[in-house]
Amino acid sequence: MNVQQLRAEFDALTERYEGFKRQNLALNMARGKPAPEQLDLSAPLLEALPAGSLAPSGRPLDSAGEDTRNYGKLLGIPEARVLMGALLGVPASAATSEVLVGGNSSLTLMYDTVARAVLFGVRGFKPWSRLPGVKFLCPAPGYDRHFAITEGFGIKNIEVPMTPSGPDMDIVERHVQTDPSVKGIWCVPKYSNPQGVTYSDETVRRFAALRPAAGDFRIFWDNAYAVHDLEEPGDELLDLRSACLEAGNPDLYYMFASTSKITFAGGGISALATSPANLTEAAGHLERQSIGPDKVNQLRHVAFLRDLDGIREQMRRHAALIAPKFRVVLSTLERELNGLGIARWTQPRGGYFISFDGLSGTAKRTAELAREAGVVLTGAGATFPYGSDHHDTNIRVAPTYPSLEELAVASELFCVCARKAALEKLR
Amino acid sequence: MNVQQLRAEFDALTERYEGFKRQNLALNMARGKPAPEQLDLSAPLLEALPAGSLAPSGRPLDSAGEDTRNYGKLLGIPEARVLMGALLGVPASAATSEVLVGGNSSLTLMYDTVARAVLFGVRGFKPWSRLPGVKFLCPAPGYDRHFAITEGFGIKNIEVPMTPSGPDMDIVERHVQTDPSVKGIWCVPKYSNPQGVTYSDETVRRFAALRPAAGDFRIFWDNAYAVHDLEEPGDELLDLRSACLEAGNPDLYYMFASTSKITFAGGGISALATSPANLTEAAGHLERQSIGPDKVNQLRHVAFLRDLDGIREQMRRHAALIAPKFRVVLSTLERELNGLGIARWTQPRGGYFISFDGLSGTAKRTAELAREAGVVLTGAGATFPYGSDHHDTNIRVAPTYPSLEELAVASELFCVCARKAALEKLR
């Protein structure tokens, strides 16, 4: 395009943009929030505990015959440990020694796991608070709340590039195997936040085969989207636990999951799965921190979800609600931006996000334009450690919360903002 | 008694003791556990959320119109903050700035509050982990789980004697006002664990008027038994918050409570109340630790308990179940031990425990004898920092969990054990 054409194009976009502004929109595509209709899928959790989950006495006992309403069971009720273990690939026979089921926030399990390492150290190694410098690897773009945990403890977050098969393992191996101050890595191994990438088998095997320079290095494997397929069949993630056992690295990982996006984001249950030795260590500290988790809610969840098949059924109902939302956003991106050479984006097969990369130096401006027109996006840069996206290109788009109609408008506006920001840059 | 009489007495007791042993008892008076009948009082929490607590849409929205099933509300839903604030003496108008409502374990709120001070420091003061030595005052006998928290962080627990009006305030003042390494004190101000002592107005005022040598000293005020009266009217505890405000010490305290012994020990809600400045500081860290508490359970609790009057009604139902249990134990102690000069015990008007002091050097032996005959008591010494009861006299008796019939047997056996241990000592 020549200068005049660019100007005409810019004026046309500006007119469209002003049209959106006049609509006084108030939409949010910032966070991976389930829509109200998704939450309605778990209505039985608001109903009476079904008779089948009560003992003959009418009391809510767990499978060991203990009262879920009373104190105890620091690591959760047996049937919930089996259920959440299944979600994380732990066989039922190992649930008692490898799975902890906690309250509604798996972020708390992650934070507390890092906090224990900082305060008390991992398996006899020095507490991280007593070391001159501790580093964590942060595949980026990634999940801002992960990066915030380690940043909050004064741990240095090191950016590692993501590839279509997971974190760049050459770089991961170099850091982990040569630098004893590298103590952990944040991973969302299936339908990664925000790209929707599922780590390849080779990536998982290379993780399992790491020979860390630090004996207290751990993989923080947040399998937040373990069953969150948008299409069938969903991606298959190689089982990290088995791979670590095979590689002779049984203690290398902490795996996390929750039902936040299976049942209620504000009333689910969470899990940590790790080796028996790691779990015993965590339980030793947890004993001082808690009188036990909310076991009644664990019983509710088992009564509702039953088993992994029950979870998969529930996830198909979620997919029926949110897959069309992803399609609206993706088809709008396609229609508005394809072939312009100013953007690329991911086509996730699961998870909660689309990762969008605009022209270098336009992400912040795009988000600003959208916000001024009433559409909130994840803060540009938020997907990078310290909020610093060096090229200012990445925006995480979260299509689940708004309605289909709202998404059609919001994603068109988003495209107009991205084009306008690109033209401003090119002028 | 002469030697022969002592021998006869000892033989008679041994015969009674062996009689108990032959009954193969398996009773537990160790922990302050609600009985199943008490848990049944909160049956509505296992039922459907009442229609009155749902929005016209049928969805469980909080009083601000936000969906309790979704993410957010890091400090809890407004109506739960008002309810738990009322329990802790915080006016509804201040709930938003002074009350946090969390998950089911107030112990977790206490642990995390200490952990934040250790890791990050309090209001700009150095993190406790970077100080050469940190001390906490522990009124004793007291609650073993409190002492375990600070012990676990390597904080030095300093024993302070309890009096019938609370901790010995001369000693508290001396430590707090002269030693900058004293950073906190553990208090159960109403129906203290295990004595059942309610701190006098003067004690509370002296707490509020403390002029700590350390700017980051805080009172950890665990009002676990705020409404747990056994008789009416219950004890009145002076409001620490008002007293601190009057004394110009608004930031001096963290107050804690939970519904563990109001609704479900394994499925209740908990609260922290403190000054706006302290709460803002805590929230800043909590933001990294949690995506918000289980708000659905908070809504359930508000629907069931409604307000402070609703809580008081519920507590009268609890008292109707457990006051007779305390009477059985107390009347057995009276019958078996009164006038012998080998024991004294408290007559609590609320709370969960009777504090028993036997002859010096007999507590461990008494607990051992009881255990061998099938009755588990709180480990002798557990009520002191580091489990160390220098005179080996104190045993905490928890009458709530066993049935009345079981308690009659268990408390008689307990007395026989205490007498036998005393005679063994005297011989």
The rounded distance between the terminal residues' Cα atoms of chain A is 11 Å
Most extensive interface: A-B, 54 and 54 residues
Oligomeric assembly: homodimer
Domains of chain A (count): 2
Provide the descriptors you would attach to this structure in a database record.
41% helix, 14% strand, globular, three-stranded antiparallel β-sheet, Aspartate Aminotransferase, domain 1, Aspartate Aminotransferase, domain 2, 427 residues, 13 strands, eight-stranded mixed β-sheet, alpha/beta, 2 domains, homodimer
Topology:
Two copies of one chain form a homodimer.
Chain A: H1 3-21, E1 27-29, H2 36-40, H3 78-87, H4 95-98, E2 99-102, H5 106-120, E3 135-140, H6 144-152, E4 156-163, E5 166-167, H7 169-178, E6 182-187, H8 201-208, E7 218-222, H9 240-246, E8 253-258, E9 270-274, H10 276-289, H11 295-305, H12 308-337, E10 343-345, E11 354-358, H13 363-372, E12 375-377, E13 394-397, H14 404-426
Parallel strand pairs in A: 1-12, 3-4, 3-6, 6-7, 7-8
Antiparallel strand pairs in A: 2-9, 4-5, 8-9, 10-11, 11-13
Helix pairs in contact in A: 1-14, 5-6, 8-9, 12-14, 13-14
